[in-house]
């Protein structure tokens, strides 16, 4: 068993190759005494050009952080003296601390965090942010950020030169259902060039904005309101979905399917043979960082999925076409639900699964279910009997048709 202790003593450099990481606050505040002392003691200072210009001590050896983060890490590793890395805000919050820990280990790092850009942005509009979803579009897929924003009442997005604020806005508009949201663009926080601009989504999409920004996505009634987060729920009642002739994965089966899927926080999910789209829609609500693709060969079913997604306030990409051929144009999935189609569809879809992925498939017939279990490894029958009222006020149990759920592979 190990324990941690703190002390006012400052043995920050007991190891010759210890690396100091200093956050430059988005609130413009000066460095703390400890951070300033460690920066002054460094022989090599690494940071963005703007941070080096504003904070690197005169006469020090410097190295600029570029897109080649591996090169930066090697520069730090090769230097025989003391190294200080300058970073924006809190280095552990979507910052450079993660690759530094992966390369050097946490025991070789001394970290001085400052106010993050997200904390400063919400402070500028006078709102708490403990109920906000925070995502990054900096070096990460934009669809992941869009999915997370669509499932959140309040969000902050760290944008980038590749995905500036206007590109984010256009992607949100294309996803549908976000037009009434208000946005605030907080640019170059803590610098003399700081701007904080409230604008609607259409105005954000039409403009050209500084990519060094945090974009706040707020409820429709304005930035002064604090909206509650959506209810975390799955296995929702069937009547909450538009469906045709009972073509829907029933609520209790849906709950089991979602449990077997073991949804990740981010990634790609396919809902093949989506029907009403209920499984994919609930997955998008449970894991807003997932990019969910709902596939069905029937155009009416695809239209129902799109309408159901809008009603539930989630982002789902709807594709109409015959599986497995239509799957060729989709990104490889981390999670896969097959609710319709034969074994050929299941086999083709499984062949696209990313390493560490999970597949769940449902069947009404035992023969297909057994074959699917032979491919995936596991099978369970879900039998549900629902209470129905009797004329005398009592209840009777009315059995639903049993459904077989196959899943795998093992984690």
For the termini, the CA-CA separation is: 28 Å
Can you tell me the CATH superfamily of the largest domain? Vaccinia Virus protein VP39
Count of alpha and pi helical runs: 13
Reported for the largest beta sheet, the result is: 7 strands, mixed
What topology, given as strand order, has the largest sheet? Answer: 13-12-11-14-15-19-16
Got a strand count?
A: 19
Stated plainly, the CATH topology of the largest domain is called Rossmann fold
Brief account:
It contains 13 helices and 19 strands. By secondary structure, the chain is α/β, with parallel strands linked by helices.
SSE arrangement:
Blueprint: E1 19-24, H1 33-41, E2 44-47, H2 49-55, E3 61-64, H3 69-78, E4 83-88, H4 97-104, E5 109-112, H5 117-125, E6 133-136, H6 142-150, E7 155-158, H7 165-175, E8 182-187, E9 195-200, H8 201-206, E10 213-218, H9 251-261, E11 266-272, H10 278-286, E12 289-296, H11 299-312, E13 316-320, E14 335-338, H12 343-350, E15 358-363, H13 366-376, E16 378-382, E17 385-389, E18 395-399, E19 403-408
Keywords, separated by commas or semicolons:
411 residues, alpha/beta, Cobalt-precorrin-4 Transmethylase, domain 1, Methyltransferase, Cobalt-precorrin-4 Transmethylase, Domain 2, Rossmann fold, five-stranded parallel β-sheet, elongated, disordered N terminus
